[in-house]
Predict the structure.
Amino acid sequence: MKGTHGTCSSNANSIRTNGFRYSNVGHCSVIFTHLNVENQDILDFEDQQVREKFVVYSQKVYERIKGKSKEEKISTTYDLFVSEVEKTIGKTFSMIHVKVQAPQT
């Protein structure tokens, strides 16, 4: 499995100019790795059936998640869905494949 992580143009330009700078105050780091995972051990949100089930699930639970920012509510919805799927089928996934929009900030 190969993956990428995107960022906005201003961040990309800063990385080109200054390189990556590590900070332990809420900033991320980039890790390059090679992952060997069997297909049956991946929950793939790019699969149409999984995506459709997630949309239905998220419509039921999103508004019930209280006291969090929009980004935290979205993240919590994904976490709850994955936990529910794992519980339902009696299996823990080794990898979750999902594409999300870049944050506005």
